[in-house]
Amino acid sequence: MRNEKVPNHLGIIVDGNGRWAEKRGLNRSLGHKEGADNLKKLLLYIYDKKVPYVSIYAFSTENFKREKSEVDFLMNLFVTLFTKEFLTLKEKGVKVVFSGRRDPLPKKVLKSMDFLEEETKEQKNGVLNICLNYGGQYELVDAVKKIVEKGIKQEEITKEVLEENLYQTLPPLDFIIRTSGEMRSSNFMIYQSAYAEYYFPDTLFPDFHEEDFDRAMDVYNKRNRRFGGN
Ligand code: IPE
Ligand code: IPE
Ligand code: MG
User: Fold this and answer.
1) Ligand nearest to the CA of 18
2) In angstroms, what is the span from residue 220 Cα to ligand 1's centroid?
3) Which of the chain's ends, N or C, has fewer CB atoms near its CB within 10 Å?
């Protein structure tokens, strides 16, 4: 993949953790643990490849509909990731930010998110945006609320104003990988993905490794992006 370009902003919809575990007769939660271990390694590789911005879909607003034991496991896993495991990203120079609603995330999770954001806020070699308790439709609702609260007048509302009031100010998504063969966005960054290219490998996320990422970059480099032109 030498001489290939990488996306400026890459999105990853982490999917298939549950099925990875079920296929092995294991509890779904073990799939999340395996997925998290893989994510940690894969991110370091992705930043080595000089991708400047990465957004990860880690937990949707809708994921609270899952069984309590699975949700509890995920919440504890997030705490471990954000207070320990993801400090390797700091060493790489990556700044971590979060997107999503804080309510109803447990206090310990919020604390661990604040810790990691604070810990990495001066880093300059890349940005990781973690979408947690995130829904793209709510992001737009929350942006409109902020705009109204600020008293911004109708004639002042532009695309830029809307963008400044999203959860984070990030460049548009160029390429979105969703593992596990599901071909939908499930409410992931619906505004930022307006002209993104999608890629849906069948691989379950815990099995999506460096060589799969290289293959994804080959796919990206073959796409013809037109942005409405000809
Ligand atoms: C993705 O894996 C992780 C989260 C949504 C938190 P899933 O848990 O959705 O895995 P499948 O789709 O059930 O296999
Ligand atoms: C989307 O995956 C949410 C995340 C990856 C965090 P889901 O597995 O929850 O999506 P659906 O239910 O298959 O659409
Ligand atoms: Mg899923």
Assistant:
1) 1
2) 24
3) C
Q: Is residue 145 part of a domain?
A: no
As for how many domains the chain has, the answer is 1
101/67 Cα distance (integer angstroms) = 20
Range of the domain at 66: 9-137+165-220
| Cβ < 6 A, ligand 1 pocket | 14-19, 59, 63, 74, 180
- 2 falls in which pLDDT band (50, 70, 90)? low
Does 27 participate in catalysis according to the annotation? Answer: no
Please confirm whether the linkage preceding 104 is cis (ω < 30° from 0).
yes
What residues sit around ligand 3, an ion, with C-beta below 5 angstroms?
15
Catalytic residue among 3, 17, 37, 63: 63
pTM over 0.70: yes
* CB-based contact 94:123 (threshold 8 Å): yes
63 annotated active-site? yes
Could you give phi then psi for residue 199, rounded to 5 degrees? -140, 125
The arithmetic mean of pLDDT across residues 42-47, rounded, is 98
Of the residues 22, 182, 200, which should be mutated to test ligand 2's pocket, given the most ligand atoms within 8 Å of the CB? Answer: 182
* Phi, psi values for residue 45, rounded to 5°: -65, -45
Is 35 a member of any domain? yes
Find the CATH number of the domain harbouring 102: 3.40.1180.10
- Whether 43 is in a domain gets the answer yes
Tell me if 159 is assigned to some domain.
Answer: no
